[in-house]
Amino acid sequence: MRGRTLSAGIALAVFAGMTVPLAAQPATASPPTATTVTRPIAASAAALAAPDISITNVQAHLTQFNAIATSNGGNRRAGSAGYTASLNYVKTRLQSAGYTVSEQYCSSCRYPSNNLIAEWPGGPADQVVMFGAHLDGVSAGPGINDNATGSSTLLENALVLAAQNPTVTKRVRFAWWTDEEQGLNGSRFYVNSLSATQRGYIKGYYNFDMVGSTNGGYFINRVTSTTAAPLKAYWDSLGLQPEENVEGQGRSDDYYFQQAGIPTSGYAAGASARKTSAQAAKWGGTANSAYDPCYHRSCDTTANVSATVLNRAADGVAYALWQLAVGGGTPTCTGGQVVANGGFESGSTPWTASSGVITNASGQPARTGSYKAWLNGFGTTRTESLSQSVTLPAGCSTYTLSFWLHIDTAETTSSTAYDRLTVQAGSTTLATYSNLNAATGYVQRSLNVGAFAGQTVTLRFTGTEDSSLQTTFVIDDVTLQAS
């Protein structure tokens, strides 16, 4: 981000438990084996499901940019060898993926060099959604948070779009700008090169500048605007309570698009401004410290990036892109129950479970009906699992995962978790229970899983037991309701 401001123009409630009489799982139960059952996915939901952007892949791009800077005098300043190598890295990946890629020479830039523009084929040419980030850094360092994070986020989103190749309802255009740090010169040159008609084709420009700050916040440009709605919807689904990007106003490449009458928005995680106490309470981090302690310094390396903040930005870009250009706008909530056979009364389908987990054995009662999922209770080292692939429809207001859990244990400690039940959606751990949470009877557990709206994920329960003193985890009446 440019340094000088321009003038105007599934954690669940945990219950302390008590030790109760035990009904251990029969010792004769056969060893766990998995039976895989695949649940059909509705075509309409699959078409709208935004992909989960791999943070590992985004970080790999950061590593490449850092190596480029190291090999070229320690920086990627516009017009330098480091900038040219950065542009070539992005360009080569995009061309291999099938993009129409062009370079635009910015003759009026302080350091004359090229913008990079990539367009995905398909969609009406007069209905463009555009995503941009500046590719250059300052001369003081490799410029990884500022702004390899934005550049890498867009590159990986572009590659995923190409790999999935969905039918698009709008033309998708990506841009990597030069000479931003010297006065937003690359993006200004591009906007000035467009005719009035061409500017009118761009229905929204989305800018991503510094989206991985280590003490970062969650900021959105023009947060209350219609253009910002899909970006905000995704972060709202994570409970992040994003704020207006006050620090970044007029300081990044959305400025000249906005001045030209093009609707704009974008994500940012903050630069040299300091996090307030209220923001630290809401988002974590350190109050009264800069969002990015290495802003425009030599320490702005791959070590100067929060993977959590960056991952949330990358996935938010994908969500917005899919809503704007794949789903054809904000989808209508289809609602309803997402989990099938949540009471386990219809056999194992479509669950995947370790052998014997879905059972009507009398040692532990079901909450309703005759069947339940009974994990562990052997008193020996053992891991058992229960899972189902689910598709959460996009466009709903609430997404609530609910299940009833009964925990018995022979453990006598009140301080050590020996045996555990982990609840996950995809690779995200939503909740962990243990022998410390034993309680009489079933307790209902509920949580918001709106972060996975529009996605297909595997809902998984995994029970692990150590070598002695059993703990039993019994699950029944699982629901995931979208409305």
TrEMBL record:
GO MF annotations in UniProt: aminopeptidase activity
Species this protein is from: Micromonospora noduli
Signal peptide range: 1-23
InterPro entries: Galactose-bd-like_sf, M28_fam, M28_SGAP-like, Peptidase_M28
Keyword annotations of the record: Aminopeptidase, Hydrolase, Metal-binding, Protease, Signal, Zinc
Protein name stated in the entry: Aminopeptidase Y
The Peptidase M28 domain, residue ranges: 115-320
Pfam (any one): Peptidase_M28
